[in-house]
From TrEMBL:
Belongs to the glycosyl hydrolase 3 family. Its EC number is 3.2.1.21. One of its GO terms (molecular function) is beta-glucosidase activity. Residues 694-720 have a biased composition (Low complexity). Residues 790-859 form the Fibronectin type III-like domain. Pathway: Glycan metabolism; cellulose degradation. This is beta-glucosidase. Residues 693-720 are annotated as: Disordered. It comes from Mycena indigotica. Residues 1-20 form the signal peptide. GO terms for biological process: cellulose catabolic process. It catalyses: Hydrolysis of terminal, non-reducing beta-D-glucosyl residues with release of beta-D-glucose. Transmembrane segments: none annotated. Keywords: Carbohydrate metabolism, Cellulose degradation, Glycoprotein, Glycosidase, Hydrolase, Polysaccharide degradation, Signal.
Length: 870
């Protein structure tokens, strides 16, 4: 008995020593001038609670985990190698015939797979503002992942594009947290509805590629952001993801407040697991770990892909429980044996992973992995690795539809668009962006992989957020085919070299319509394309795009510009040119790119689409107008960790332009249509506190109160919900049940903190936050001559005392209307949408006072205003 007790006490001492290590100077102290930017320590890691609908699955997972040996537990938490079938592979449990988990990129398709689709990028999905289309994309992508045997799909990505030039901005849903939150949530709902575990990433403040970090790249930049900005901006979409039950989260490469995100206990234990009550598991970004003990204590649950770092040591260790070139693997066993990490921690890691696996139904006949990230060939080293299963179904239809629905019409004068073949004799098409890729859609002329080049038409950016194109319909081919299908005698001439000015001249001078294709690319920081290390060096066009436009417009009175750009591009050089009659931002439309642009350009396309997309970021007149800039050179002496201080706080993108009174060229939410819309009859319901709010008689046009995220759940009709307002369900006193402690909680023993002792909150934050609060309704009318959809946007203005920007997006609805038709639209609001994060109280509080209500066609084109008294 005595030795046992002694062992227990020694272990307890060791564990508290480890927590003390976590408290002191891990991994770096702040450089001079940045002392306030450090993270508090929040330990111990809370055990999964089994909240709400997770309960039975957590219970099953606990039971299962209890049967495992320590080696088996390690197998579940640590990746195998980079030479596995998927980009991430856990070990297996032969004793239970458990084949391990396949984790695979990307947020726009099944990376490296054949017979799979290349979907429009997330930045395009968001630009549709159509929750049905965004969700359908999630479903379709996940069907493909599932069909290939992927257990965990590594998306959606929901970083916010703090800087216009940020390399991976196109992998996310734009620069507004509310819109990104809705898009993230419905994408996850779609993906998980087919049983694939979605991974929301990158947690968190992973907003640039320079100094992005990872174990092979030092120094690593520290994102320094205050608590209000964290909650109201960067955390918002993650909270919405947790609320809808996302299975996994990926922590990012960067430091936050000097501590690497994957070992930042305030972020993982404090914010993710306690405050947001996250029940799934959190994995590292690939080789993001820079340490073993700290991430375990800080709440990390899975080490991906397993090895210490790219190019460091043995990259291929088939058995995680024996892997020595890993921060975990055998080391995790050592940590537990020497008391650095309590065994309860690894039990919780495994429980969380299996609870998610059970919850998504993957224990019931889930398809086996049938492809290899390493080859498109059938066999690799004599082993059959690729069954070439065709998972594309009819997803090309959805891809084409989203491509057209995400194309933003920025300018349209002299009725330039839409075109009609009947009225054309001769068409000129200019620029390499209209053309096929010289080395094929999946390769680069210089041999670079992962789309690390910008050749031919641009339909996705570069890096791990890509997928193979099964084919790529280029604009020249699609436009020519469409025109020929109606009138083969129309002359369609393509000058597809960007600098062939002599060849362009006669074509430009003699065409009725000159279509100029230009682009701008960016991607992930491990690839440098033409001097761009992931982040763009500039926010202008590539391949001499401005000169190309000037050249054509100088000779052609009907010059129509189509941009395939990853994000904002400044257009001041040419936007007001009288011969530039129309401009479209088509973004990154995926494999059906050419067909999608035909649908927008031509009214006689069988799938002609009246543009309705709206910008999900601001296009400034000049780069300096934006709130924040990429840090390209280290701002800390002696190669210290660069410091990215988010001085603009909550005022990113349009909020900054509004605060500073800067006129952008095209504001957030802007986008034209071939028709026009009228707004009338604003009514604000539920605008009094609690009882008053719900005791108001509801009018004949029944205001809608829905518990869904505040985007209207349907695109073709206004939101309708039969859920009656329930006075007692509308909580006004919104108190966070889980405020993260900012100090080490006393941990008297080394045993697992019981679920009850951890301040684990409701899933996604206090349930009361998500309660319906009221709604804003109005009438929308199509006042033009063609059918089309309008994305009506709801912005709120909080009382000045809260120090918020003039307008915050808090709802939207995409409504399709025939010519002359009108419809009542109602946009629901939740308590959260009217709340701010109180940094002192460490909770969300409903604002008090007069809240301005603005409804319009963009963040600056406000058509109706009203107020609520709270
Ligand atoms: C980062 O530091 C700021 C300033 O002290 C603080 O407000 C914020 O809560 C910290 N965030 C994290 C995640 O540590
Ligand atoms: C761990 O996983 C590896 C790789 O799949 C497997 O070979 C090994 O048998 C597993 N170890 C245990 C203890 O199950
Ligand atoms: C315990 O083991 C881990 C993993 O090998 C090691 O990093 C750590 O330094 C050890 N701690 C002690 C106190 O021995
Ligand atoms: C902007 O960057 C692109 C891509 O590197 C380059 O082609 C272009 O020349 C740059 N523009 C300017 C004005 O430097
Ligand atoms: C517009 O195009 C016409 C040719 O149709 C050309 O004569 C004119 O100079 C162009 N305008 C400008 C401002 O370049
Ligand atoms: C109203 O809310 C209370 C408390 O949450 C609940 O018991 C009741 O069933 C709800 N009624 C309706 C009609 O939703």
């Amino acid at each position: 008995m005595v030795p046992q007790l002694l062992k227990h006490v020694l272990l307890a001492l060791a564990v508290s020593r480890a927590y003390a290590d976590l408290t002191t100077g891990v991994p770096d102290s702040a450089p001079a001038g940045y002392e306030e930017w450090t993270s508090p320590i929040v330990v111990p890691a809370p055990d999964v609670k089994g909240s709400a609908d997770w309960a039975p699955f957590v219970a099953r997972a606990r039971k299962f985990t209890a049967q495992l040996t320590i080696e088996e537990k390690v197998n579940v938490t640590t990746g195998v190698d980079v030479n596995g079938r998927c980009v991430g592979n856990t070990g297996t449990l032969p004793r239970f015939k458990w084949a391990g988990l396949c984790l695979e990129d990307s947020p726009l398709g099944v990376r490296f797979a054949d017979f799979a689709s290349a979907f429009p990028a997330s930045i395009n999905a968001a630009a549709t503002w159509d929750v049905d289309l965004i969700k359908a994309r999630g479903v379709a992508m996940a069907q493909e992942h599932r069909g290939k045997g992927v257990n965990v799909a590594l998306g959606p990505m929901t970083n916010l594009g703090r800087q216009a030039a940020a390399g991976r901005q196109w992998e996310g849903f734009g620069s507004d947290p509310f819109l990104a939150g809705v898009a993230t949530a419905v994408t996850i709902e779609g993906m998980q509805s087919v049983g694939v575990i979605a991974t929301v990433k990158h947690f968190i403040a992973n907003e640039q590629e320079h100094f992005r970090g990872g174990s092979e790249s030092f120094p690593i930049a520290s994102s320094n952001l205050d608590d209000k900005t964290m909650h109201e901006v960067y955390l918002w979409p993650f909270a919405e993801a947790v609320k809808v039950g996302v299975g996994s989260v990926m922590c990012s490469y960067n430091l936050v407040n000097q501590t690497q995100a994957c070992q930042n206990s305030k972020l993982i234990n404090g914010i993710l697991k306690e405050e947001l009550g996250f029940q799934g598991f959190i994995m590292s970004d690939w080789a993001a770990m820079i340490n073993g003990v700290q991430p375990a204590l800080a709440g990390l649950d899975m080490n991906m892909p397993g090895f210490v770092g790219y190019g460091i040591g043995d990259q291929n260790q088939p058995d995680p429980s024996k892997a020595t070139n890993s921060w975990w693997g055998v080391e995790l066993i050592n940590m537990i044996r020497n008391g650095s990490v309590p065994e309860s921690r690894i039990d919780d890691m495994v429980t969380r992973i299996f609870a998610t696996w059970y919850k998504l139904g993957q224990d019931r006949g889930y398809p086996e992995v049938s492809f290899s990230q390493l080859t498109q060939d059938t066999y690799l080293n004599g082993e059959l690795v690729n069954k070439h299963i065709n998972v594309q179904a009819d997803h090309y239809k959805l891809i084409r539809q989203i491509g057209a629905a995400s194309t933003v019409l920025l300018k349209n004068t002299k009725n330039a668009l839409p075109l009609s073949v009947r009225k054309l004799k001769r068409v000129g098409i200019f620029g390499s962006d209209a053309a096929p890729h010289p080395a094929g859609p999946n390769a680069c002329s210089d041999g670079q992989n992962d789309k690390g080049c910008n050749e031919g038409t641009l339909a996705m950016g570069w890096g791990s957020g890509t997928a193979n194109f099964p084919y790529l319909v280029d604009p020249f081919a699609a436009i020519s085919a469409h025109i020929r299908s109606i009138n083969p005698t129309v002359v369609v001439e393509g000058v597809l070299s960007d600098y062939a000015y002599n060849a362009m001249a006669p074509v430009a001078r003699n065409s009725d319509a000159c279509l100029v294709f230009v682009n701008a690319d960016s991607g992930e920081g491990y690839i440098n394309v033409g001097g761009n290390q992931g982040d763009r060096n500039n926010i202008t066009l590539w391949h001499g795009g401005e000169a190309l436009i000037a050249n054509v417009a100088g000779q052609c009175a009907n010059t129509i510009v189509v941009q395939h750009a990853v994000g904002a591009v400044t257009v001041e050089d040419w936007i007001d040119h009288p011969n530039v009659t129309a401009v479209l931002q088509a973004g990154l439309p995926g494999q059906e790119s050419g067909n999608a642009i035909v649908d927008v350009l031509f009214s006689d396309s069988p799938q002609a689409t009246n543009p309705s997309a709206k910008l999900v970021y601001t296009i400034a007149k000049k780069r300096e107008d934006y709130a924040a800039e990429v840090l390209y050179t280290n701002n800390v002496p002696n190669n210290g960790n660069p410091q990215l201080t988010y001085d603009e706080g909550v005022n990113i993108d349009y909020r900054w332009f509004d605060v500073k009174g800067i006129k952008p060229r095209f504001e957030f939410g802007f986008g034209l249509s071939y028709t026009t819309f009228g707004y009338s009859g604003l009514r604000v319901s539920g605008h009094k506190r609690r009882a008053e709010a719900v005791s108001r008689p509801s009018s004949s046009s029944a205001p809608v109160i829905s518990s869904k995220p505040s985007a209207s759940p349907v695109s073709s009709a206004p939101a309708v919900s039969s859920r009656p307002a329930n006075a007692s369900s509308i909580a006004v006193s919104v108190s966070a049940s889980a405020s993260a402690s900012s100090s080490v909680r006393p941990s008297s023993t080394a045993s697992a903190p019981s679920a009850g002792s951890s301040p684990v909150g409701d899933i996604g934050g206090p349930a009361a936050l998500y309660a319906p609060f009221g709604s804003v309704s109005f009438t929308l009318k199509n006042t033009g001559r063609v059918a089309g959809a309008e994305v009506a946007q709801l912005y709120l203005t909080f009382p000045a005392a809260y120090n918020e920007p003039p307008r915050l997006l808090r709802g939207f609805s995409r409504v399709f209307l025939g010519a002359g038709q009108s419809k009542g639209v109602s946009i629901p609001l939740r308590v959260k949408d009217l709340s701010v994060w109180d940094v002192v109280a460490q909770k969300w509080v409903l604002v008090k006072g007069e809240v301005g209500v603005a409804v319009g066609a963009s963040s600056r084109d406000i058509r109706l205003t009203g107020k609520m008294q709270l």
